[in-house]
Specification:
This protein is an alpha/beta fold. It has helices at about 5-15, 55-65, 75-90, 105-115, 125-135, 140-150, 175-185; strands spanning about 25-35, 35-45, 50, 70, 125, 160. The protein has two domains: about 20-90, Double Stranded RNA Binding Domain; about 105-185, Orthogonal Bundle (Arc Repressor Mutant, subunit A), CATH 1.10.10.
């Protein structure tokens, strides 16, 4: 049994190859519960790199492989994101101010997601319009794939993209989550 902070530090150094003592992790990592299900959060020095519906283990593995290996809880960096998500779901926040780190997105997807961030709360765009706005009007499938792979859901609002014929289209969190987000933003009215 470990009795003191020094012993715990020594044990962590032996058992965890990424442990760096009292220094905060390079990537803050945790999960938050929301009205659309649990979201796995990861925050780097640049901003939110993950706000994902994916399984925590899948996100952790990807972050470890593509961003950094020193990953752990860090309330100082995670809590501001959680507070903004709580305020958004409570209807008190219309625009996220937390910086976003899109390094998990491909260069094409990054272009799509950056353009998407200009679609305001309460508005939608279509896959076709988004493709036209990035100068690739025939790249509908590629735009759809970029949105499906969005590593920062909700904050980078891929739920605001609907089909050209008025259908909701797909969403990483599922159709019910997309409908709930659009209802929260007043795009869909009624029950």
């Amino acid at each position: 049994m470990v009795s003191g902070a020094g012993e715990l530090d020594a044990l962590l150094r032996i058992t965890s190859p990424t442990y760096r003592g009292g220094r905060p992790p390079d990537v803050a990592f945790g999960t938050t519960q929301t009205p659309v299900g649990p979201l796995v959060l990861a925050v780097t020095g640049r901003g939110v790199v993950s706000c994902s519906y994916d399984d925590e283990d899948v996100v952790f593995e990807r972050i470890s492989r593509e961003v950094g290996r020193f990953i752990g809880p860090d309330a100082r960096r995670l809590d501001p994101v959680r507070r903004e998500l709580d305020a958004y779901f409570a209807g008190r926040l219309r625009a996220f101010t937390t910086p976003v780190d899109l390094r998990l997105a491909t260069p094409f997807a990054r272009t799509v997601l950056q353009m998407l961030m200009s679609v305001p709360f309460g508005a939608t765009t279509t896959y076709g319009e988004l493709a036209r706005r990035i100068g690739r009007p025939r790249a509908l499938r590629a735009v759809g794939n970029a949105l499906a792979a969005n590593p920062v859901c909700v904050i980078v609002p891929c739920h605001r993209v609907v089909e050209d014929d008025g259908g909701l289209g797909g969403y990483a969190g599922g159709a019910a989550a997309k409908e709930r987000l659009l209802r929260l933003e007043g795009v869909i009215r009624g029950h």
